[in-house]
Design brief:
By secondary structure, the protein is of the alpha/beta class. The chain contains 15 helices and 18 strands.
């Protein structure tokens, strides 16, 4: 769909209008200037007085059919920045309304395209709004439906039960340790993940850098009495390395990190069942780590083959039982809605198989076509469900989790996600992933260690977020890890030592 926008000169409006258009049309182009062969014309009229009033007429060039919508926002006694925000919201509201009328598709998340919608509700409640006022704000400002607002409210309440001091952890940190190796790379994946067999030569060098970072960062935190809330070993698949290599990493964690016994949660992402062995589970037992992920993604062998996961459904089940027999008492499993060739029947089968295992938590992802993934680059090879089918699968997940005693506790969204839906983590009460809550709600700094690991530094006083990323490929990481470690320590000094002085 090619849409020419008229009446707007500010180029800052192009991106939000393009993102909204993408919610309705898979292939689209939006221009604020003349667009040859435009299929629709969107003409905005703006009146600015005590309020800003935006009127939009949407014209189908071929049929001459029109749709008109209007939106108004308070405009007086605002800074220029706030005026722009109100104008953008009014434009977005009018545009979304017209496209919904034109297509018949209701966007349950309104024109919200951000990754972390629950942050908005947390902020509104912390600012003193009542629950009713906060919900009204979400509906009026972003056009989010009651269904999604109710989901957000459930999640916020569960998070505050899991971490009652969530808003008071800015002077602590969490640690993400990235190990960028997997048995194979899944077709939908864009994480730093390299086939470990093809990169055996770089593993030991990479691990040397990882040990260096753990020691240097740990010593800084220990010397400055900065506590760690959670630690998460991710990747890649951190159980791709050997049991001996895992043991050495956890040994360093205990040696250098401050007060490890009082870290609230340590998780190891053992996502690929084909990496799990009794020897590796024994290492986890040795270091008192009992929270892991074993991710089936699907319980259909043909799907696993199509997406490049070289393990079988039976191996997932067998490794789950092995982990359970070896005292893994908090196991998460992931399922993905909308994998190639799957519809409601296949997804219901995955839920039925999950019921036989009953992991402590279940994360339900909606497939996202990430720009750099193999699946996105070869879309014609991967037939996926349409919006209606994907929504039905999401409702199956919601009903199944509720019926089996799971509650939603974290949520995030992505661009190009099927059906403009979401990813939701469910768990039994008291079995939530604390790290997932911390990374989504951005209440404290997350220090990324390892190849491709991203750090998010949250200023303890202002809340301003600074992002910092390690190199994504092992060679670049191996060449520069000392430099990147020092740069992170310098940022930590700015945040924590200056704020303490």
């Amino acid at each position: 769909m090619r849409i020419e926008i008229r009446g707007l000169q500010d180029e800052r409006f192009q991106r939000p209008l393009q993102l909204i258009t993408n919610l309705f049309y898979e292939e689209s182009k939006v221009k604020l200037t003349t667009l040859n062969d435009a299929e629709m014309l969107a003409t905005f009229t703006i009146e600015e007085k005590d309020t800003v009033k935006v009127t939009l007429q949407l014209l189908d060039v071929e049929t001459n059919e029109t749709w008109t919508s209007c939106s108004e926002r308070i405009y007086v006694q605002l800074s220029e920045k706030e005026k722009y925000k109100q104008l953008k919201n009014a434009i977005s509201h009018a545009y979304l309304t017209a496209l919904q009328e034109r297509t018949g598709i209701i966007q349950k998340w309104g024109f919200l395209t951000g990754i972390r919608p629950t942050k908005l509700l947390h902020k509104a409640l912390r600012d003193g709004k009542s629950k009713e006022e906060a919900h009204e704000m979400l509906h009026e400002q972003y056009r989010i439906t009651d269904e999604k607002i109710d989901l957000m409210q459930q999640i916020v309440e569960r998070q505050l039960k899991a971490i009652p001091d969530l808003y008071d952890l800015k002077n602590e940190v969490s640690i993400y340790i990235g190990i960028p190796f997997c048995p194979t790379k899944c077709a939908y994946c864009t994480f730093p993940a390299y086939a470990i067999r093809a990169n055996k030569g770089s593993v030991s060098t990479f691990l040397a850098g990882l040990h260096y970072e753990i020691e240097a960062i740990g010593n800084f935190l220990k010397e400055n009495n900065i506590a760690i809330t959670t630690v998460y070993f991710g990747g890649g698949t951190p159980t791709s390395i050997t049991a001996e290599e895992m043991d050495a990493l956890y040994s360093d964690m205990y040696k250098y990190f401050p007060d490890v016994e009082n870290i609230r949660e340590i998780t190891v992402e053992a996502g690929r069942p084909d990496t799990i062995t009794p020897e590796k589970l024994a290492v986890l037992n040795k270091w008192n780590i009992d929270r892991i992920s074993i991710n089936p993604q699907s319980y259909t062998d043909e799907t696993l083959k199509a997406i490049g996961r070289h393990h079988s459904v039976q191996e997932t089940i067998d490794k789950f039982h092995l982990a359970r027999s070896m005292n893994m008492n908090n196991i998460n499993m992931d399922l993905i809605i909308g994998l190639p060739g799957e519809g409601t029947e296949e997804f219901q089968h995955s839920l039925d198989e999950t019921k036989k295992l009953m992991p402590e938590s279940l994360t339900v992802h909606t497939l996202s076509f990430k720009r750099a993934s193999e699946m996105t680059q070869n879309k014609q090879k991967y037939k996926v469900a349409d919006r209606t089918e994907v929504e039905k699968m999401m409702h199956l997940a919601e009903d199944w989790t509720a019926a089996n005693g799971y509650v939603p506790y974290y949520l995030y969204r992505q661009q190009n996600i099927l059906g403009n839906l979401e990813n939701v983590g469910y768990s039994f009460a008291g079995q939530e992933s604390l790290y997932n809550i911390m990374i989504m709600e951005e209440q404290q700094s997350i220090i990324g260690i390892g190849c491709g690991a991203a750090s998010k530094f949250v200023h303890p006083e202002t809340g301003i977020i600074t992002r910092f990323a390690n190199p994504k490929d092992p060679k670049s990481y191996n060449d520069t890890y000392e430099q990147y470690t020092q740069e992170k320590i310098d940022i930590l000094k700015e945040l924590f030592l200056k704020s303490q002085s």
